[in-house]
Amino acid sequence: MHTPPAPESSAPEGVDVTTPHSARVWNYWLGGEDNYPVDRELGDQILGIHPGIAVDARAGRAFLVRAVTHLAREEGVRQFLDVGTGLPTHRNIHEIAQSVAPDARIVHVDNDPLVLAHARVLLRGTEEGATAFVDHDLRDTGRVLARAGELLDLDQPVGLSVIGTLGHLPTLEEAAGVVRSYLAGLPSGSFLVVADAVLPDEGSAAEALDEWNREAALAYRGHTPAEFASYFDGLELLDPGVGPTPLWRPEPGEVGRTPDTDMYGAVARKP
User: Fold this and answer.
1) Which label site among 9, 58, 101, 212 has the fewest CB atoms less than 10 Å from its CB?
2) To 5 degrees, how large is the angle CA 154–CA 160–CA 166?
3) Model-level pTM?
């Protein structure tokens, strides 16, 4: 059983609890407690229009677990840069990576006051490894990389993850430019892990997106399959390539039980 969600009076200083916030609504859909009445109200409105959004949230998280586990276990990655971390949940990236490789080093990046207030949770790593939190706008890639380089060796491969974040950038061009800029600062042999929503132009998902953009503080932009795939241009895709996240290397017990989701994902290597 979950503990009661956070009351408004417990909000950290500088956190607006009068307007729904994407990280807190996402936290609500994942079953977390770090959300407020305004977030749950919008979350329920969206669920009423498009119940599959909760499946999308869980599918994106499960994909991240499998992708990071693969990179740490099969590809030998020992450094991770998590851009657009969001609120801490069960099995954050440092927990996933360090469960396979205790000496892994992870840098989380976000500039939301509520995420910053919970950063201590993101810094609880293993004694052998290390974790850090960069409080900065993810679009300022040069500054983020400079800060990340205080913990990570940017001459060695890094696993760059951007989950459910690129759709919040206003245009595909800006989002793709951010991805390219981060990759330009990472060496050959690094990996890109992206999951985001590929939405149809009509139906309940499109209706839910319209409702979200009317109510939430941070607008969201869906992708077509081709737009999402463009984030991996020039990279070497790992099998099975780009597609719905449940199809990316499912665990044996998950085969044949693929949920229907708009959350797409892929992992690729920088040549």
Assistant:
1) 9
2) 135
3) 0.88
